[in-house]
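Pilot study result, target chain (306 residues):
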Amino acid sequence: MALFWICLCGICGICLILSLMKIRLLRKAAKEITEQFSEQLHADSNVLLTVSTGDKAMCQLASTLNAQLSALRQERLRCQQGDQALKNAVTNISHDLRTPLTAICGYLDLLQQEKMSQSAQNYLAIINERTQVIRQMTEEMLQYSVAISESPDVVQEDVILNHALEMTFSNFYAAICKANLHPEIQICEAPVHRLLNAASLQRIFSNILQNAIRYSDGDLKVTLTEDGRITFSNHAAKLDTIQVENLFERFYTVETAEKSTGLGLSIAKHLTEQMGGQIQADYQQQILTMTLYFPPNSYLLFTKEI
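Predicted structure:
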């Protein structure tokens, strides 16, 4: 009887050891699948998931995930090809429109020098205005195609945000006066240094200001704090929360934006994130607020300490 219990305990012990070994192998296989899946999910390759165990369930799991990865890669490739085709189309259309528009603008300038009736002058003014709108929209499309085609490794330099913001306002002084805006500008006295691409930063500021001029009800408040946070806020009663949530979407326009392609803020968002910054829009009590933030660069912090 004692021998029976000894044998039974021995068999149970062996089963327990085998079960623990099986669990350990399964955990190892699960870890391998998790690590490989996380790596292959973002990798541009056709490498399949593999497991070091012959367990049927784990092999089936790896096979299923491989099928899903393959479908995901095909969908990603299709989206990339479609996006590239769209970029090429935008670039080609912009270039194709530039030449005839330049010629049209030139002939309009010549026509304005001719003697004509008041009605003809009015018609000519309308044609000239609409031509300038088309020209502006074409330039926006070209800017967009250039911005999204630029390499992330753009040339960066030590930029003082205070000076860059002041320069942008100087460039837009005439447009701000024409729109009858009364800007309130609060820029900190301490220079805010960032390692950025100066041309891209100017484009970001310009696009945000153009948006403010387009939607503002007459006011504009701009602030720059010492931590590098820049806000553009203005009353915009014609907007709503849903429209503001889509302002950064490519080609999105609201009903009031008759002279826009919907690319300006999309360009600003792309360039901001390309340089490691953050941009967001908020709408509270009919006030539209654009917040732009570039975190301190470790390189600049190091050089300042030296």
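One observation from the pilot: Residues 188 and 225 are 6 Å apart (CA to CA). A full batch analysis is planned for the follow-on phase.
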